Amino acid sequence: MDFNDNSEEAAFRAEVKSWLAKNAPKFAQKGSNVRREDESAEDIAEAKEWQALKADSGYAFIQWPKEYGGRGSPMQAVIYAQEEAKYPLPRNYFIIGAFAGPTLMAYATEEQKARYIRPMLRGEEVWCQLFSEPGAGSDLAGIRTRAEKEGDTWVVNGQKVWTTVAYMSDWAILVTRHDTTLPKHMGLTYFFLDMKSPGVEVTRIRQISGGSDFCEVFLSDVRIPDSQRLGEIGDGWSVCLTTLMNERFMGGDASRPDAKELLGLAKRLKIDGKPAIENPAVRERIAEWYVQSVGAKFTKFRTLTALSRGQTPGPENSILKLVNASKLQDIGAYGMDLLGTAGILADVDGDEETAQFLMAYLAAPGARIAGGTDEILRNIIAERVLSLPSDIRVDKALPFNKLASGAK
Amino acid sequence: MDFNDNSEEAAFRAEVKSWLAKNAPKFAQKGSNVRREDESAEDIAEAKEWQALKADSGYAFIQWPKEYGGRGSPMQAVIYAQEEAKYPLPRNYFIIGAFAGPTLMAYATEEQKARYIRPMLRGEEVWCQLFSEPGAGSDLAGIRTRAEKEGDTWVVNGQKVWTTVAYMSDWAILVTRHDTTLPKHMGLTYFFLDMKSPGVEVTRIRQISGGSDFCEVFLSDVRIPDSQRLGEIGDGWSVCLTTLMNERFMGGDASRPDAKELLGLAKRLKIDGKPAIENPAVRERIAEWYVQSVGAKFTKFRTLTALSRGQTPGPENSILKLVNASKLQDIGAYGMDLLGTAGILADVDGDEETAQFLMAYLAAPGARIAGGTDEILRNIIAERVLSLPSDIRVDKALPFNKLASGAK
Amino acid sequence: MNFDFSEEQKELRDHARRFLKDRCPWPVVRGVLEGPAPYDADLRASVAEMGWPATAMPEAYGGIGLGYVELCVIAEELGRVVAPIPFSSSVYLAAEALLLSGDEANKSEYLPKIVSADSIGTFAVTEGAGALSMDSIQTQFAGNRLTGKKIAVPDGDVASFAIVLAQSARGPMWTLADLTKGGSTRVAVKTVDPTRSHATITFDGAPAEPLGAPGKGWELTQRLLDRAAVLFAFEQLGGATAAMEMARNYSIERYAFGRAIGSFQAIKHRLADMFVKNELARSNCYYAAWALMTNSPELPAAAASARVAASEAYHFASKENIQIHGGIGFTWEADCQFHYRRSRLLGLNLGSVQFWKERLVSALEAGAVA
Amino acid sequence: MNFDFSEEQKELRDHARRFLKDRCPWPVVRGVLEGPAPYDADLRASVAEMGWPATAMPEAYGGIGLGYVELCVIAEELGRVVAPIPFSSSVYLAAEALLLSGDEANKSEYLPKIVSADSIGTFAVTEGAGALSMDSIQTQFAGNRLTGKKIAVPDGDVASFAIVLAQSARGPMWTLADLTKGGSTRVAVKTVDPTRSHATITFDGAPAEPLGAPGKGWELTQRLLDRAAVLFAFEQLGGATAAMEMARNYSIERYAFGRAIGSFQAIKHRLADMFVKNELARSNCYYAAWALMTNSPELPAAAASARVAASEAYHFASKENIQIHGGIGFTWEADCQFHYRRSRLLGLNLGSVQFWKERLVSALEAGAVA
């Protein structure tokens, strides 16, 4: 039991380090790995340039098969990501491609693959994913966006939401409902789509935290050639599952502030004239979150170990977002509590170390929902990991248009 | 807003106080309100004597209608109970009668009422309730005890469980299934039963805590005359609901140890050489449980206020057991934690004040289950108080013998 | 036993609820969140017309002296709608401070203006991060002038006077500063809840006068905190109840997997937990209202208990309300954020829940308890 | 990255699991719960035959020196079945104390007896209620004799020797007392978990000898606690996992309302929460096993972290296992009680979870952390 690379991994890491040392600083100087709301055309151009350079050196979408420009190695993808994270590089707008790509690989024609995959890998064309809808979030198969066939063309109408990078995307993957009289999962058909098509309108969504990480996409009589259908008519759910399987990438590290930042805050603040860090109640809280934090970190190491051994990672990875999102919300609120009445201030004398707790408090509700709500994640753990029976489903057999649906 | 009796209540309380002052001490000397496991025949005789005295003075089952020997006043019942609790009186074996009685009042013949209700009120005959079964706890309507009609007699076979005072009961109320081909709730029929009938066998159940508060009752070819049926054949569920409605008595006070006992413990123990009560982490916990404890206490006061005003109490009362049972478990475990390694001892130098935490830890699992599990109580709050939709029911329409059922 | 609002109090509540439903729907709150105004002036004026600031105020100062339970009723309703007006600063803090001070001249001068809403008053105490303690107070009062800086002062940007806790040669001191008379600078600050305005006030030799007994500023502050905590707790209780109702209603309207999401136990039981926390808070709040009304020696314990229960109930209800709303819940356009912001603001305005847990246990040790 | 058991370690685990499934089913545990025997002698003998006490023991003392990760593997399996044998006292405490002491003579004398199961050893430290501190130690060591009283000593009634923390003229002191040589009285005591026996030991001038450096008894105790905490944490982890599996299996078998109760989200999500806590504990335990194996400076933080996570995971799993079983779960005849009792015993044996949270934060402050 150790934390070391095996010899192959060590060699790859050395190679990556050296490549990054040579290539990253130029971009790191200009860019920043902090998300910015209103990037300039230059920011985007720079990010594309960096992605292209990575792709040309075999460091973009490393988990992809070699024939498409990857290295077929999830472990090497992780090692690369670890090393890349040490540089403040341009924002990555290309992550949707990482799982749109494998969907194309599985379902597109050879001509389409030749046309789309390389520009996707190189970031020349940005892709987005038109899946969620206002009425279909946790229940993705409940989408209502209609696709109607007119000759060799499909006419699509509907509204999509929570679409990352839609405002700057060139192409999209899209799931639609082509037949409302079929049961829910059987009436779905999957396409890819030119985002510059007439009838596509994108607006950005503002979140509680003030950020705008997502978009709404309105589709009005958007025409898609049947050649851009992926999978058979009515086979959209299977195609979706292909995409989602590739979306299950490595759970990210916990957002900050984490237990360590709380420890830092407690060292600076006072309670009853004594440093807060000397207060046993504060110490207990720090201990609790530290245990979660370290537990999450080493859980990820267990997953990496499976990858490193060429095995399929175990289910332990499924706990990470569930743990980290609530921890973020709780630590945010508790940091504000430690600040006392001053905790309400968005900015305590311009001090970023204190402001991060309020920011976490405002951002965390999104973390508990985006990418699978707490409730969906618990269901997944219960059903897929512990093999418990599924919820009683009333929506599987009935025609979609006979299902009960609420006002919203 | 005050905590005072209104004038009518004050008058009744004075009357009760004076009656108790005159009558209770004789029994209080002999008895004890602490539950004992293995009461003697004398203990039982004494309890019956006390119950008869109460009944003859109008203080037994005060909530019952006047014509049956009560006073028709839930508020007066509460006031009496408050005053009675000040004396260590004999254990009360007669509580099942309090809700078996109203069921008889509603469904029995005049002759039966004349025969059974007064001995029930006076404690001459002890009643028990044969409802729950090993396979039907939270889901009472899932009971399997069979009743088959042979002429004017029913032959009953099955097993009941969690039956309070069955081992000393003279009579029982009983719900059975007379037809397994009908849907679950429609195949039930309700009886009362002589516990001395051939084929009735009672054994006591031992709990984790070592106590034996409940019994199992085995029914083997027990013959019950049809005249002892309460309600129509197939109407058993409605009759059950009558019984259960009367069972919803005032939620009890929290069991001890509560926040105050924890405060007491913390004053005596040391952490790092200083009294535990000076430790802010300990103080936070005490505060949290005290808030719950006071909240529960005053919630009960709000219910009493409704009774006092002649109104139906609000739903707030439904939270009490849910809050108190988990609090008991948590305080038990935390008290043991404060004791440190010595917390494992059933008996720290014969010190009852410390032993109560371990006892609470062992008793609390029962408190979270008996009389409605935490989960059933949350469902009740959600559905009856907040009017949320019921769970999806797969068991309402199918014949009972077609329902899925597990190994246990 | 008579432990509930009276019929008259329930009528007052129903009346206030109807009034605020009409006058303070979400767009009014959103207007203050997104616009430049520090509060909704129309709502403030209507509330004054209704006589709400006069509720518990003695008649001698223009009040109607209904009583504190009635003021609690009003507070709960203002909390329900996340009212964006300077009510708590003036009525729970400034007016209560004046009443506690025993200073007749100042009471006669300022209290009627609070009643008529001609003036906004506030209480300026916080000076830095961390739990409040007299050690943390640097503001000096000398020669009837104040020097120092107060942060996170509620309505500090719009108040015309402030009761200010300061150090003085005679010990901790309450002082009254007329903020319209110069010597102080106010800067509105951004907080977690922009629907209630806050400011930094810098006193640079601002004229002020002593309020209450010299050297008693810290004791008076403790008494004020206990009294205000009860009223804040009712605002929190109102917010917690409204957030629960919002989540409950959404869970019935919103369908997923062919069912109302409120039929899933994950949601149902979360809502049941909200109800439990809210009812425990309500019972604690009623107890505290009784203690405030009767000036009971149990007030410190009862106020702390209500404050703790209501802070935690509102925190839970407001965050889980967003969670139950799912994706839409954390958008700017949704209304969930109002409770999420306000619960944090109210939960910190008088000091954190930990601060109040400590006060509670101190009160338990001192002995006057339920 | 190689952060998991190796194939060999997994084989050891599977082998141990099969062995214990066969040799330590619930009736064996119940036999000790209900009977007069302090432990199951057959199981103890078989475990010794399997060589488990030798797992991490250096070959010089009769061990096979496989290593600490392997001992952790064994501990997890013993925890799963709530093994009613004096293993932890001898192997995690007494043997580790001897190894830490550096006392060759005693190591050579006692360690082989632990390996062969000829002797049971224990560590006697607790003297009263409350968190452990050197102040609380009254037992005196003078003139090679011990005087004092130790409570809640694991296997104190059946151990033949004990390492005893005492005060001495040269400061805190470890001493080794041969309990078979008179001068001490042992009284078995009733605890929350009668499947593991405990005793009060009164030393009345019992002969004993110093163990380890004089004056270093407290430091040695700290180091022993860190090492033992890792092994106890694995027992707790095993118990937590087994309790979760028990609840999971029952929730699939048990039907209510026409459905397996495991199809209700109230139950499903509780089980998911158990899984989450157990996986966090597992990851923390692996980290601690690594730190123990490598004698890392991170051991104090890693051990405390594992101890906290595993204590809380087992507590949660064991109590919610009963809850999911419903009525049957809190009967004496059901097997749920074994985990419920053992989780509390293990959670307190080395000091409470709060005691370990404090140790954790102290270690974080000291700096060597993940």
Summarize the structure.
The complex is a heterotetramer, with two copies of chain A (408 residues) and two copies of chain C (370 residues). Chain A is α+β, with helices and mostly antiparallel strands.
What does this structure look like?
The complex is a heterotetramer, with two copies of chain A (408 residues) and two copies of chain C (370 residues). Chain A is α+β, with helices and mostly antiparallel strands and 408 residues long. Helices cover 43% and strands 14% of the residues of chain A. Chain A has helices at residues 7-30, 41-56, 74-84, 95-107, 110-121, 236-247, 259-268, 280-308, 320-339, 352-367, 374-385, and strands spanning 127-130, 146-150, 153-164, 171-177, 188-194, 200-205, 214-225, 229-230, 270-271, 274-275. In chain A, the strands form three sheets. A four-stranded mixed sheet of chain A has the order 1-4-5-8. In chain A, helix 1 crosses helix 3 (74-84), helix 4 (95-107) crosses helix 6 and helix 7 packs antiparallel against helix 8 (280-308). The model of chain A has no long low-confidence stretch (mean pLDDT 92). Chain C has 370 residues and is an alpha+beta fold. Chain C has three domains: 7-115, Orthogonal Bundle (Butyryl-Coa Dehydrogenase, subunit A, domain 1); 121-214, Beta Barrel (Butyryl-CoA Dehydrogenase, subunit A, domain 2), CATH 2.40.110.10; 219-369, Butyryl-CoA Dehydrogenase, subunit A, domain 3. Chain C contains eleven helices and nine strands. Chain C has helices spanning 7-23, 26-34, 41-49, 68-80, 88-101, 104-116, 217-253, 265-293, 299-325, 336-349, 353-366, and strands at 121-124, 140-142, 145-154, 161-168, 173-178, 184-189, 198-211, 255-256, 259-260. The longest helix of chain C has 37 residues, at 217-253. Chain C is globular and about 75 Å long. Chain C starts with 6 loop residues before the first helix and ends with a helix. The mean pLDDT of chain C is 97. The interface between A and C is large, with 65 and 57 residues.
